[in-house]
Amino acid sequence: MIHKIKTSVDFLHKQGFENPEIGVILGTGLGKFINQLNILKEISYQDIPHFSASTVEYHAGKLIFGELHGKRVIVMHGRFHLYEGYTLEEVTYPVRVLKALGVHTLLVSNAAGAVNLSFKKGELMLVEDHINLQGGSPLAFKGVEKLGERFIDMSEPYDSSLLKELESIAKEQNITIKKGVYASVVGPQLETRAEYRMLTIIGADAVGMSTVPEVIVAKQLGLKIAAISVLTDECDPDNLSPINIPEIMAIVEKSEPNLVHLFTQLIKNL
Hints:
Blueprint: H1 2-14, E1 22-26, E2 38-44, E3 62-68, E4 71-77, H2 88-101, E5 105-114, E6 124-132, H3 160-172, E7 177-184, H4 193-201, E8 206-208, H5 212-220, E9 224-234, H6 245-269
Helix pairs in contact: 1-2, 2-5, 3-6
């Protein structure tokens, strides 16, 4: 994998992706953050050596490099998922490339269902911890020790100083933001009533199909990490309605400006 990473990095250097400081992973429907950037370069994933192709609607599948408040920022406009048929190593490969390019801080967004019934759709949730229910680890492969520690500490995967700063920004701007535990499942099907009950029992506040693999690898690489979930639906097992994708995307669109503001202001303050 080391050779593959070098090949990807060398290619991106030649394309002008030089010395990024902050990486951002944008989740489902959360692409408007790029409008804040002074975009210098962009390239489709399929044109980058050893990158996978994003196959999911609402994921643009582009790597974008630009400047924001004097910081050099690289954005994954769309991500990869296990449910697309990719391995955990393929899902997290871009994070390794971002680190090799120079990124020291990673901001992650996702769309998630609210399992905690005191949380409401349209609200934002700061991820302060997570539960890995994806059935594997992106560090469980031969040779992982050549890329970093094998047995990494996960007592604080999300950087407390970044979380405090995001809370402060939200308070200043009167943005409602909750804190909670994000459970990551494989998908692509949504959860049954029994599964929602199980998630509540084990301590989850929200559930989605991403984020945790990238965070585990970012932690192995020593990156500072913050993640925000946009809560798109309320997962009450006793009052569960059939999935409505257009409604979910409408909620994402309505909530997105607050997420964009939080990430933009955080980058300014770093």
